[in-house]
Amino acid sequence: MPAVVIIGAQWGDEGKGKATDLLAEHIDYVVKFNGGNNAGHTVVIGNEKYALHLLPSGILTPGVTPVISNGVVIDLAVLFEEIDALNARGIDTSKLRVSSNAHVITPYNVTVDKVSERFLGKRAIGTTGRGIGPTYADKINRVGIRVQDLYDKSILTQKVEGALLAKNNLLTKVYNRAAIRVDEVVAELLSYADRLRPMVADTALELYQALENKKTVLFEGGQATMLDVDHGTYPFVTSSNSTAGGASTGSGIGPGEFKTVIGIVKAYTTRVGAGPFPTELFDDNGEFLRATGFEFGTTTGRPRRCGWYDALIARYSARINGVTDFVLTKLDVLTGLKEIPVCVAYEVNGKRFDEMPYSQSDFHHAKPVYENFPGWTEDITGCRKFEDLPKNAQDYIIALEKISGARISAIGVGPGRDAIIVRHDMLAAK
Predict the structure, then answer these.
(1) Are 190 and 153 in contact (CB under 8 A)?
(2) Alpha-carbon span 223 to 9, nearest angstrom
(3) Of 67, 136, 212, 230, which one has the greatest count of Cβ atoms within 10 A?
(4) What interhelical angle do 153-173 and 107-120 show, nearest 10?
């Protein structure tokens, strides 16, 4: 079975965790290939709700091997907090594999993240303040700390010293903060080494061998397309590649293995943090979506910005990622609306755009052009077949499918694990 990629098709929080967990019953490995604990997945199983930030959501499915691969940045304290929390609830985490090449979020990178964002003032990016960006910056600047460095104290100490040369100057002379001591950082990082050791592996090799042995491997992206550092709404983006292409570089698996790309898209649109958002609502409809959909960040707790479905973003994501299947989530949130607008184009300074403008300035000034669809009042949370949906809901799905760039293969109709309608087999050979 070729590798399968799941990515967010908007600005994140689309429900990737639920989709991953749905598919995980047919999957042998679930791989997190980018991001860190700035991403959040909420998975509901029965009456239990699980909020995951760093761990792949497939860890909740027995028999699945969860993998944190080389493209991830890891806060070791958060990792073990999540593991301990799951263990306390009876979840087996013993199969977790962690790449030796994954980079470690150090205490000084968390500090730098928080103080630098604060100093940006009104130009703040909207970072979560968890050290993600500075850790990726260290990686690119070749002063990062990798998991494997925890097993050579001499090398670890030298690397921390090198990283802190510039950072302590910045903290003391620019931000008026106390210098960070090398020995304290080294001691904290080494305190995790023994517990981490059994999980550390050459995950690229292990995943290659799994695919060679016809295992099914699911690659789970953190954040989403519009937050990708290369293809998102720069500079209001994350610090990694959250598109399907990032699955290859972030895991060490060749791009030819990826035959199925599943894009997760909400029946409306949300984002957290700063940056342009053409369909954002500032009225009662926005409050309705936020309250009904409980749109608050899994990781940050911040209220999400809410807006109508944006077909241009969906088509852009389909194109950038090579999406073969969309999973449309949270259709139930729209229940009760008399009319549901969908953005089908933008207007910028009197010019119509039927595709995403390449200019960030144009995107910032874009005004949505809407097409309205009739809503429905029936409770759809118990629907398990497409035909069970009210006709207006069916028509809404069919209309979105025509303008979104790929087929809609599954539809989320409630928060529960089983509250989903499957229209097409996403794991079938393409």
Answers:
(1) yes
(2) 9
(3) 67
(4) 20
Q: How far is C-alpha 398 from the geometric centre of its chain's CA atoms?
A: 26
Number of other residues whose CB lies within 10 A of the CB of residue 402: 10
What CATH number should be reported for the domain whose range is 3-93+202-422?
A: 3.90.170.10
Q: Are 409 and 426 in contact (CB under 8 A)?
A: yes
H/E segment holding residue 144: none
Q: What is the mean pLDDT of the chain?
A: 91
SS3 5: strand
Known catalytic residue: 362?
A: no
Q: Give the pair of three-digit tokens for residue 208.
A: 């290659």
Q: What is the DSSP string of 381-429?
A: TT--SGGGS-HHHHHHHHHHHHHHSSEEEEEE-SSSTT-EEE-S-TTS-
Q: Which residue has the tokens 């700035």?
A: 38
Chain segment 161-219, per-residue pLDDT in tens:
999 998 998 888 888 888 999 999 999 999 999 999 999 999 999 999 999 999 999 99
pLDDT band of 157, cuts 50, 70, 90: very high
Cα distance between residue 165 and residue 217, in whole Å: 41
Active-site choice (13, 21, 28, 113): 13
For residues 146 and 101, the answer to whether their CB atoms sit within 8 Å is yes
Contact, 238 vs 40, CB < 8 A?
Answer: no
CA distance 53 to 43: 11
- 20-43 b/e (C-beta count within 10 Å ≥ 16 → b): bbbbbeebbbbbbbbbbbbbbbbb
Architecture of the 103-196 domain = Orthogonal Bundle (1.10)
Catalytic residue among 21, 28, 41, 332: 41
41 in active site: yes
The model carries a pTM of 0.90
Helix (H) or strand (E) holding 45: strand 41-45
How far apart CA 394 and CA 71 sit, in angstroms, is 39
Domain ranges of the chain: 3-93+202-422, 103-196
